[in-house]
């Protein structure tokens, strides 16, 4: 199997731009794709802010080395508004677009026709079954179609889940493990099950925290403090929910409830969360969630 050196990332949002950044830092040639100049510009901005942070830490006090590092990483990144053109030489295609199965399936059906035969296709979905997305491609591609699930903030979080469907070949799985290690992350593998490993455990825990609040058993602040100081979490469940996005949290659990593959008690909705989402309070990105960030 060919080494992964050329990567195309579809989606320039928080996750997509983070994946572009870590691949470019690992010296891969990366094309970042989105549908508008504004979306690509936003992705570039996220990368340059994060790169400055990484450079400052790597070359503390040496501005020249910091600049050389940033320039070298940025030189590995190309922007494109055409996914079809951008995959023409890709060893790996990673999709990080909206969590909509039809949109993802249409994208991959189109890319399957134009990408090189050896290209590995991956989705960074956190909530949709990989095999349902992969089924939109040819049988040959399904052997090269896996989940590659990064965590937010991508440049800082050290884990990648490689989600292996029954169709994925050993060679492809090995290539993805090698790529994950090359970009400085630790891979774990799991079957194509709801939430994979991290979200399967993390999301029900967070929802129970929301329901503790619904039942007025403890305050947001006290639950967060308890989990940080009593369980060693870097963020409490409400801080983390605001960080991930309340709409995302709701989308994941509503999807699981509909699928019916998870114990119903674990996917009980939370009134506090539902109310905030319906009022447009989605967490940090909208300025308010469980906490108010405008103050
Ligand atoms: N770019 C580059 N580096 C970053 C960064 C960024 N955007 N954000 C943080 N970092 C680095 C910092 O430079 C620092 O590095 P160091 O330890 O080597 O010095 C390290 O990360 C810690 O950052 P800070 O000291 O500035 O801040 P904190 O100690 O408060 O850490 C945090 C910030 C890493 C976000 C930490 O609070 C954390 O780990 N929170 C939990 C995040 C989490 O659980 N993410 C997973 C969410 S679930 C998910 O993504 C799945 C999805 O499918 C829903």
From TrEMBL:
What Gene3D superfamilies does UniProt report for this protein, alphabetically? N-(1-d-carboxylethyl)-l-norvaline Dehydrogenase, domain 2, NAD(P)-binding Rossmann-like Domain
Membrane spanning segments where? none
In which pathway is this protein known to take part? Lipid metabolism; fatty acid beta-oxidation
Q: Does the keyword Magnesium apply?
A: no
The keyword Mitochondrion appears for this protein: yes
Catalysed reaction(s) here are: a (3S)-3-hydroxyacyl-CoA + NAD(+) = a 3-oxoacyl-CoA + NADH + H(+)
Q: Which family does it belong to?
A: Belongs to the 3-hydroxyacyl-CoA dehydrogenase family.
Chain positions recorded as CoA binding sites: 50, 57, 126
- Name of this protein: 3-hydroxyacyl-CoA dehydrogenase
The superkingdom of the source organism is Eukaryota
What positions does the entry give for NAD(+) binding?
A: 11-16, 34, 99, 104, 126, 152, 285
